[in-house]
């Protein structure tokens, strides 16, 4: 087997031909490299005659950002491929199908989703996603429950946790989300107009305590196989379809981290509506869609997760201990609220931002939106250990937007 | 290399000769197999001329108990050998030195501790161990701190956690401690005289809830490399020396489980003093030694752990977040109290008992001692989430003994 090397378009096409049941033998194929070149090569291979297509994704052995480059093991392709297979088996409608993986070449060949739109873009364009809360709550309930000690063999879970140790990508999260935004760090990235906010984050003792609590959960709690990076840029969506992609950060961690990632990105867009819905009426309406979606993500997730627990619970103790499910779900909501906040703060002052805020052209509007996102994030972090209902999370967002 | 086979005494002696720096070449050696034959072969090899000796321990591929036999992977010898090396490096005076390991043959060759006495036996004989609280708190603080995200590289910790996945032995704990005592199970083992207590455990909803909480912690929290079975039968002691052995249950779990194991076994002996100190005066005195030791184990552990954190803390957030250390130590005390209780209950009604209670010859006295142990254990489990001081733990024991 040839050693790892980045594929050419011609090689990607040859590989695509070997996948059974997609293209006819000898079909005329086209190939476009659509990756951003920072982390992965992504070849989109199509057969114009039939409209059929597939994706060949290959991990690169480095990360490039802003001209910088640092090495990153391509083992993440193994993790992504294995996670996709598990998630697809648990939520087949919501995860692309994997046709083929090659560990040596760090390649995953999978279903073409080019009919879909990256959800972050859709939200910025004002698209309504009436199915999203239902779909993502199914994805979350299925993938978290059935990879946890609640829903699978507790012996197999330990072996699976062992195979998803993800040192490098977890470190990125630990650094960028649970450390750097709260101190001076060269990777921090914020506009001068909110320098006061960035400085305040560094001296807020109450905030530091709660970030330490969340960081410790992230480092130690092997509850379920997480997606690990479940923002709206990892979701392909249409109003009637949702597909979750790119689980290269997958590892065994605290469930609330995935749920919080979804809610954080809805609330970042909520803050961005200062610009994306310039009219007061339409802004109110779109924000109602967003808060209703936040409500739906949690309540539908919680209902589905409890039903799975009642019907498929594997643990002999958890299933009979009166009150344990309530206690568990309450703690999960608190974790979710805290991780939501942490994921919002870092998108404003940390290394990696979101277009929902950064693409706002008007300086004053962008500043207002960023301050709002920070206000929501900080409040969620500080209050996370006492939150008892998703309505409190929504109230925090509404209060910040009414200021 | 020859495939795994149980060693003969002659083979053990040949192996012992190859260890450098213990025996002189051609020395006359004696060998006695001192294992109980249920889990391991333990060869004690000595040179009568010099008094020098060492231990050759080999894991057997099965467990034998009460005539039953079930298969058990000898991978536990790898785990035990690796854990011993790590623990010895962190607490050299308190852990036997490993001279040699052979993974294929599941063999660990280590320092001879035959001058020491199994601490459980010593406690039953009324030995005072004035150094014990100091020694074991050093062992706990050093091994837990420096294998956790607080005290070592968080990247290396993930790889170490991966290499200490211990499916089979964790399952034994999950079944015997966190499940079977609370329902009807064929492995449960209790005397007719306390059948009322055993039955009551099965219908106590408040107890089941807290056991579920503790079980979930055991299943998911990868805080530090635990010994995993730190009862007084895993400790060789003299009044002026303490050695911790047999870490074959080692895995990454919640720190409170190890601390709780020590305190539980002190309190099981405390209950057993109904017999072991027949005179009221000497009983009071020995119980004072035991409660003073419980107090010392926690307070000295906490002080040492905090000092290590202050002086060697590796985490950039934990070390500066005001109040986090207090919060962490308080939760650790609560975990400790809960695990203490769980480890006491199972020794009275579950599969594996302790001689501190079972070796009491008088039926009425033994019954009284067992009821006392259960009362302490249940109270600790039920109250563990609100306990705020080690004095509460001691009060629970004193109250049960005064009934």
Task: Offer a quick outline of the entry.
The structure is a homodimer of 403-residue chains. By secondary structure, chain A is an alpha+beta fold.
SSE topology sketch:
The structure is a homodimer of 403-residue chains.
Chain A: H1 9-17, E1 30-33, E2 40-47, E3 52-59, E4 62-65, E5 68-71, H2 75-90, E6 98-102, E7 107-111, E8 117-118, H3 119-124, H4 132-145, H5 154-163, H6 167-176, H7 195-201, H8 205-220, E9 224-226, E10 235-238, E11 241-244, E12 251-253, H9 256-276, H10 280-312, H11 324-349, H12 355-358, H13 363-383, H14 390-402
Antiparallel strand pairs in A: 1-2, 2-3, 3-7, 4-5, 6-7, 8-10, 9-12, 10-11
Helix pairs in contact in A: 4-10, 9-10, 9-11, 9-13, 10-14, 11-13, 13-14
């Amino acid at each position: 087997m040839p050693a790892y090397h980045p594929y050419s378009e011609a090689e990607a096409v040859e590989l695509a031909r070997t996948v059974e049941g997609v293209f006819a033998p000898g079909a005329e194929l086209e190939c476009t490299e659509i990756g951003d070149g920072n982390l992965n090569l992504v070849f989109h291979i199509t057969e114009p005659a039939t409209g059929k297509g597939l994706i060949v994704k290959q991990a690169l052995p480095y990360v490039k950002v802003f001209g910088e480059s640092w090495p990153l093991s391509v083992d993440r392709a193994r993790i992504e491929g294995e996670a996709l297979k598990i998630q697809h088996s648990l939520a087949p409608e919501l995860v692309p199908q994997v046709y083929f993986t090659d560990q040596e070449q760090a390649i995953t060949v999978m279903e073409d989703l080019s009919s879909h739109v990256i959800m972050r873009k859709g939200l910025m364009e004002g698209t309504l996603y009436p199915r999203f809360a239902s779909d993502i709550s199914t994805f979350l309930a299925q993938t978290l429950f059935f990879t946890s000690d609640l829903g699978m063999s507790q012996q197999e879970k330990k072996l699976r946790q062992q195979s998803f140790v993800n040192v490098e990508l977890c470190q990125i999260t630990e650094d960028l989300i649970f450390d750097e935004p709260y101190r001076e760090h060269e990777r921090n990235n914020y506009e001068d107009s909110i320098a006061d906010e960035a400085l305040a984050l560094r001296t807020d003792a109450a905030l530091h305590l709660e970030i330490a609590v969340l960081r410790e959960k992230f480092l130690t709690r092997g509850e379920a196989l997480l997606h690990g990076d479940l923002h709206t840029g990892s979701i392909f969506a249409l109003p009637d379809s949702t597909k979750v992609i790119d689980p290269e950060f997958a590892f065994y961690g605290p469930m609330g981290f995935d749920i919080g990632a979804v809610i954080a990105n809805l609330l970042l867009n909520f803050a961005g509506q200062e610009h994306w819905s310039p009219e007061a009426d339409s802004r109110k309406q779109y924000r109602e869609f967003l808060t209703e979606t936040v409500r739906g993500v949690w309540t539908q997730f919680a209902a589905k997760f409890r039903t799975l627990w009642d019907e498929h619970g594997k643990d002999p103790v958890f299933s009979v201990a009166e009150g344990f499910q309530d206690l568990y779900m309450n703690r999960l909501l608190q974790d979710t609220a805290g991780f939501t906040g942490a994921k919002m703060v870092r998108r404003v002052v940390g290394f990696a931002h979101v277009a929902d805020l950064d693409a706002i052209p008007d300086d004053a509007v962008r500043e207002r939106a960023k301050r709002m996102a920070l206000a929501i994030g900080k409040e969620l972090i500080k209050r996370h250990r006492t939150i008892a209902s998703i309505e409190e999370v929504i109230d925090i967002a509404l209060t910040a937007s009414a200021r």
